[in-house]
Amino acid sequence: MPVNLIDELLKALKPAIKSQRQVRPLLEQFWSDKIVLLWTSEHIHRAANEQKTVLTEAQARQILHALHAHYDRQYGLKWEDVAEKIKDSGLGRDIIKIELKRFINQDVVVVDGPRRS
User: Fold this and answer.
1) In the chain, fewer beta carbons within 10 Å around the N or the C end?
2) What is the pTM for the complete model shown?
3) Alpha carbon distance 83, 56 (integer Å)
C-alpha cells in the first residue's frame, strides 16, 4: 500500500489510536501482500466534469456506490465505466462556461453544493 494512503488511514484513525508509531508497522505488514485500487468521489467529480456535468457530493457518492455494487473483478473498472454510469444516472447539472474554463485551464474540479429547500 502506498505510504501516503497509510498516512491517510493514520490521520483518520488518530482519535481512536494511542500510538501511530505502533500502528504504522501493523498497517504496513497488513497491506504488504495486498494491493488497493482506490476510486474516490473526486474521481467521479472529475469524470462528470469531463462530460460537462456537475454533481453534488451526495450524487458522486451515489454513483461511486453503484459502481461498487456492480463491480466485476474479472473485468475491473475503467474510466469509461464511470463515465457511462454518470451519463446513465441522469444526475447532476450542466457545467457553466466559467466552471468549464477553470476545469480545462486550471484543473479545478467543480462540485455542486447541496440543494437548498
Assistant:
1) C
2) 0.83
3) 16
